[in-house]
Here is the input.
Amino acid sequence: DTAVSQTPKYLVTQMGNDKSIKCEQNLGHDTMYWYKQDSKKFLKIMFSYNNKELIINETVPNRFSPKSPDKAHLNLHINSLELGDSAVYFCASGQGVGYEQYFGPGTRLTVT
Amino acid sequence: GQQLNQSPQSMFIQEGEDVSMNCTSSSIFNTWLWYKQDPGEGPVLLIALYKAGELTSNGRLTAQFGITRKDSFLNISASIPSDVGIYFCAGQGNAGGTSYGKLTFGQGTILTVHP
Here is the structure.
């Protein structure tokens, strides 16, 4: 069983479109995260949810809206996609402060 | 904000050699994590460090949490071709409790192993 799963693996879309990425974890963790990896492989936190509550929002444009229907799921919705949104997006989960995090396989988003 | 400097940026080594990489921070972290990322995959946790001075091994991998809490290193002994990938350090701090576990990543070390 995959611990942290994301769908889709690849997402190709045009500028201006709205798209969503889904994430699920079966580790029983309380906290889930979204990270963005740019073309230089740099990983940066975007959001964190703890028990369905938004905890961290790292100056991400408000076109990005995370939603957590329950603590096992954290989805990322992106409105009005721009070229600069092209990146790999990773979902992760953990028990919170002081604990390790486990990453999903990533979603490669390409905006044309 | 917190920054991590990871070095070296890349390494080209022969199979069987030992490898060492490290991360330094401008501020204190309470947890250090080391990940490996293969092409097209997500980062996979290798070692987690929770206490200053802690030295932890995982097979051929050894990592240490620096005494000052501002640095960590990862050693790989007797490298093999499947060690190829990008290695990331990541620090997790309290930052007054507002960070809630967010990881700050180093820039990564690209490891190439020649058979």
